Amino acid sequence: MDLLSLLSTVATVSTILLFLTGVQICRQIKDQGNTKNIPIFPFLSMCVSATFWLKYGILKGDSVIMFVNSTGMTLGMVYLVVYYVYSTSKEHVYKMLAYAGLIVFPVLLYIKMVVPDKETSLSHLGFVCSVGTILMYGSPLVSVSQVVRNKSTEYLSFPLCLANFLVSGMWFIYGRMVDDLVMQIPNFIGSLLGLIQVSLFALYPSGAARKYDMSGTGSII
């Protein structure tokens, strides 16, 4: 197995394991019998981001990107079904799904029917994918002000922040090896954001964390 194949395999497995952190949230939903205090956004953003990256992988003909994100999209849909079943506000779920649809379908229609050639499609869709990935990797930073104010990282998940750092780093290296800037730029930024998140645990060590910010579970390559 050459270095590229080894790296793509490790990055793929790591990313899928990151996707599977949603199982923990679904178990929490099932145990408490409702979705109280658990946002739908991580699952929804996971589906949206994976859908865009899957389309990018199809256009590019990259089987690694296609496999990872078809898995992510499928898991995201399963998580959304669980969320819907236990939600006490079905109207809110419908509204959030509608918002997601208003993002996904216009972009896909634009790529399919408006953009004149494949290279332009890859460029435009790649920009959308990049922005989404950066937002996903940086989403746990929303809790930074709370961390600094309380001088505690109890609201951050160290395993999740570390996983974001490692996974984004691996996909950055993969992007370098296949000479794909669309993969390099967001994952380089993602690795820096992950490093910032991990460093918070050195600055503000915490005991047993009880309330995790799981908003980064939608991280995609």
Automatic annotation (TrEMBL):
Its main location: membrane. It is a multi-pass membrane protein. The chain crosses the membrane at residues 6-26, 38-58, 64-85, 97-115, 121-143, 155-173, 185-204. Coiled coil: none annotated. Keywords: Cell membrane, Golgi apparatus, Membrane, Repeat, Sugar transport, Transmembrane, Transmembrane helix, Transport. It is found in: Cell membrane; Golgi apparatus membrane. InterPro entries: SWEET (IPR047664), SWEET_rpt (IPR004316). One of its GO terms (molecular function) is sugar transmembrane transporter activity. Belongs to the SWEET sugar transporter family. Mediates sugar transport across membranes. This is Sugar transporter SWEET. It comes from Holothuria leucospilota.
